[in-house]
Design goal:
Number of helices: 1
Number of strands: 0
Oligomer: single chain
Helix content: over 70%
Shape: rod-shaped
Largest sheet: none
Radius of gyration: 21 Å
């Protein structure tokens, strides 16, 4: 296949690609929320609300 030939995905290939993208987006969202919670907890501990 030469670089000038456009590749057209089939419906099944497109569905698989979209499913992978959605799964990756969910994982990145969970990681981001986890980091936010971690930073929040570290801040609370450093400020010393419980001590």
């Amino acid at each position: 296949m030469t670089p000038t030939e456009p590749h057209v995905y089939s419906v099944e290939e497109t569905r698989i690609i979209r499913a992978r993208q959605a799964a990756r987006s969910r994982v990145m969202g969970v990681v981001l929320v986890g980091l936010c919670i971690l930073f929040f907890l570290i801040t609370i501990v450093k400020v010393g609300v419980w001590g």
